[in-house]
Design brief:
The chain is mostly helical. It has 7 helices and no strands. The chain has a single domain, classed as Orthogonal Bundle (YutG-like). This is DUF7984 domain-containing protein.
Length: 159
């Protein structure tokens, strides 16, 4: 696999084109998590998703890594699927964390990936459902809407 600027641009467009599938998955994930944590979580619309995708791909170092994870997961298949279970899970977790923007949100995105992944099933290659779950987990973590993300942290320096 060779990642050129044109290849990264192609993956950027592919992730944008997934809005019809990923935005509902983001909101379903947020609804389920909100119920579990007894909180209301803001709804993500297509324009917020697209803006977040553009933001991720605007940073060259992040863009090339996200593009690589996406391209690998789009084509990853393992006969019988189960023997490849670990690799697609690892790639999905890392994609979600990279999209979220690093720790501490990256760790939260990795956990959310597993939560979203159990609800996603595709008929394509083994990596496709992990790819959708990773996009949903990463972008839902990155985007506002959680009450704990609103306002200043009580742990910010007061110097």
């Amino acid at each position: 696999m060779e990642l050129t600027p044109a290849a990264v641009a192609d993956e950027h467009q592919w992730v944008r084109d997934r809005a019809d599938d990923i935005v509902p998955l983001i909101n379903e994930t947020r609804d389920k998590l909100g119920d579990l944590f007894d909180t209301d979580v803001g709804v993500v619309d297509e324009s917020a998703y697209l803006a977040a995708v553009d933001d991720v791909f605007a940073r060259g170092d992040v863009a090339v890594n996200v593009a690589a994870y996406v391209r690998i997961l789009r084509t990853l298949d393992v006969e019988g699927d189960y023997p490849g279970f670990v690799v697609d899970e690892v790639l999905g977790r890392r994609l979600a964390a990279t999209i979220a923007g690093g720790d501490p949100l990256g760790l939260l995105a990795e956990a959310t990936f597993h939560f979203a992944d159990v609800a996603v099933h595709t008929d394509g290659v083994a990596g496709e459902d992990d790819l959708d779950a990773a996009l949903a987990a990463g972008f839902q973590t990155r985007l506002p809407g959680w009450s704990w993300q609103e306002g200043d942290s009580p742990f910010e320096s007061r110097l």
